[in-house]
Design brief:
The protein is built from 8 helices and no strands. The chain has helices at 4-30, 36-50, 58-69, 73-83, 89-103, 110-121, 126-134, 138-184. Helix 1 (4-30) packs antiparallel against helix 4 and helix 3 (58-69) packs antiparallel against helix 4 (73-83). The relative contact order is 0.14.
Amino acid sequence: MFALTPWLKTVKRLLNSIRRFLRYNLIRIKRLSGNPRALAGGISIGVLIGLTPTLPLHTPLIIGLALLTRTSVVAGIIVSWLVCNPLTFVPIYYISARIGNSVTPYNINFQKVQLLLEQLSAGDGFQASLNIIMSLGLETIVVLLVGGFVFSLPFSFLSYYLAIPFFRKRQEKKLKSITGAANTL
């Protein structure tokens, strides 16, 4: 019983850290200002890219897609960090491989995915991560990307349609507070 106490304290600290991370980023999302459609589009892009196994390329892909679609780059990057972080990137790669194996004619084994995850988590930098991915071969890249997009697309659409009413309500509240303040003058 006494041996569990340090372990429980560690778990409690970890859960508090996760809670702070989530709360901080949700506050950042709430404070975003702009067109509700642009903000929702940025969130949708962040979910789409964040749930795909494109880890070293998340930020450039989000910036490119957000600029191309005229949506919020900041919203996309914040949400990408929420959905793909050190706790979630391992399941994302495994789910992508599993779905990719079932929807493509190729089949990769999970030892290859495990090796990829170990190399990516070593943190050798952006160029090293790109070299690792390029060394996997076309079949592995196709399986992971197709599986990742099949996995992330429904969540991306869902996030867009949930974010639109959220940001519209935020915009209405801001307008009411501005007009209320103007009427009191």
